[in-house]
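Apologies for my clumsy wording, but could you write out the amino acids of a protein and the tokens describing how it folds?
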Amino acid sequence: QVQLVESGGGLVQAGGSLRLSCAASGRTFGTYAMGWFRQAPGKEREFVAAINSSGGSTSYADSVKGRFTISRDNAKNTVYLKMNSLKPEDTAVYYCNAHRSPRVYWGQGTQVTVSS
């Protein structure tokens, strides 16, 4: 089993930056693809970014492409989401996700609030 703990959320002004971290437990972190999702109030959880197990391949939602960067450090069992040029519509709870079929694990989420 993998336990995920997100950190780094907070309140930031529009145009600002934040870096989210997701620390994973266990010795198998490097075998999992990792992702970031977000959920705004009254909306469904949506995909933000993903990275494969080695870190060699990434993908992004169109809404964040060019502004957000996902990365991972397998030696530290951690995945990151660097968020630049933040917009009020980026306000949401951000969740870390680990997946290696058929297993999927979620963190508890970290709040990101972007003020205009």
